[in-house]
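Support request from a user on the community tier.

User writes: "When I paste my structure tokens into the form, the page sometimes reloads and wipes my input. The last time it worked, I copied everything first. Here is what I submitted, just in case something in the input itself triggers the reload:"
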């Protein structure tokens, strides 16, 4: 069970990056649709649990150290090439978004130049990725319980201090910029782009244990944890929608409203989650390009990290609103392939279990 919880914590840690924990992604994909965004969150929870279960279980069975084996197993020889290229490209893209998010926190919370946050995150990420995968998984899983406690406190505070009617909040929410045209597509697209980026690290997490059931359990628990965070952050922001318009880091603003100390703690949590995701993405990207056992692996990590740092100056909100939705549409291909693979494996299991009649 300990390994399952570690995988679950690392799953949440990899997916919950700058946009998620700050509330910016949740705002664009869920809260901007008002109360129906909560239904979108429930749908997203189901798919996070199901897809996490499949990817970690396959990673364990194939004992992989990069996403390549799992992608080709799911998608086949020809489609696998396309999906592999897309996933690899977006691993780098998400690492860039994380470094940009770090800059936004340094600027909004501490009044420091955004470049300071970008530099600190780039250096920490590069140094950590040079460790082995077991150490990376342990580090990533540490921050998840801490964030969960803070989000529960912030959501509770928001509900108890709510000063607008639901109809007024609904109208304000629907005026916010949305990443998609409707709540259902928002929920599905959110899962899609996160899985497109997270699939690589999920496969590596599963490959860290030979016990497929342990890996499967970790994927399910991680997916449910992600769903809980989506719902809590979504509700907390919705009931305070009147004070969150045009803010880079909505949950950070809510934490500061409650108390400056909580704001500082939330800043640390956000930086921790950004760090987690940046480490996961840069590790998975680097491991796909070059085997971790290769003596030049660490040098490649440094090069890729510096390139991600350079690209991070495009801007956080702009990156979340453009890179992620495009990634999400491409991620639907991967989700469809995982579902088909699941049906195929169930059918094969049913055939294997049928009794053989002799005579």
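"...and here is what came back when it finally went through:"
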């Amino acid at each position: 069970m300990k390994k399952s919880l570690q995988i679950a914590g690392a799953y949440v840690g990899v997916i919950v990056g700058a946009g998620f924990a700050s509330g910016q992604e949740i705002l664009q994909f869920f809260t901007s649709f008002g109360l129906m965004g909560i239904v979108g969150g429930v749908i997203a929870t189901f798919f996070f649990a199901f897809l996490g279960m499949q990817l970690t279980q396959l990673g364990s069975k194939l004992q992989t150290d990069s996403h390549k084996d799992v992608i080709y197993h799911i998608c086949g020889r020809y489609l696998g090439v396309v999906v592999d290229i897309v996933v690899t490209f977006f691993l780098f893209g998400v690492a860039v978004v994380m470094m940009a998010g770090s800059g936004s926190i340094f600027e909004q919370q501490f009044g420091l130049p955004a470049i300071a946050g970008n530099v600190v995150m780039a250096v920490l990420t590069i140094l950590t990725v040079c460790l082995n995968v077991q150490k990376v998984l342990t580090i990533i899983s540490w921050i998840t319980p801490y964030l969960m406690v803070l989000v529960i406190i912030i959501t509770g505070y928001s509900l108890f201090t709510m000063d607008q009617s639901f109809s007024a909040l609904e109208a304000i929410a629907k005026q916010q910029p949305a990443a998609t045209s409707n709540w259902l597509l928002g929920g599905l697209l959110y899962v899609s782009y996160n899985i497109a980026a997270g699939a690589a690290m999920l496969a590596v997490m599963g490959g860290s244990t030979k016990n497929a059931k342990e890996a499967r359990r970790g994927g399910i628990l991680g997916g449910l944890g992600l769903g809980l965070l989506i719902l809590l952050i979504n509700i907390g922001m919705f009931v305070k929608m009147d004070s969150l318009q045009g803010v880079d880091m909505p949950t950070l603003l809510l934490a500061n409203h409650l108390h400056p100390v909580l704001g500082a703690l939330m800043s640390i949590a956000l930086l921790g989650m950004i760090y987690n995701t940046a480490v996961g993405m840069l590790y998975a990207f680097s491991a796909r390009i070059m085997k971790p056992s290769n003596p030049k692996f660490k040098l490649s990590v440094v090069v890729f990290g510096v390139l991600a740092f350079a690209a991070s100056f495009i801007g956080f909100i702009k990156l979340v609103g453009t890179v992620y939705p495009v990634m999400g549409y491409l991620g639907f291909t991967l989700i469809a392939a995982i579902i088909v693979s699941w049906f195929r494996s169930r059918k094969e299991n049913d055939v294997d279990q049928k009794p053989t009649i002799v005579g």
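Agent notes: The reload is a front-end session timeout and is unrelated to the input. The domain at 2-341 is CATH 1.20.1740.10 (Amino acid/polyamine transporter I). DSSP finds 15 helices and no strands in the chain. Escalated to web team.
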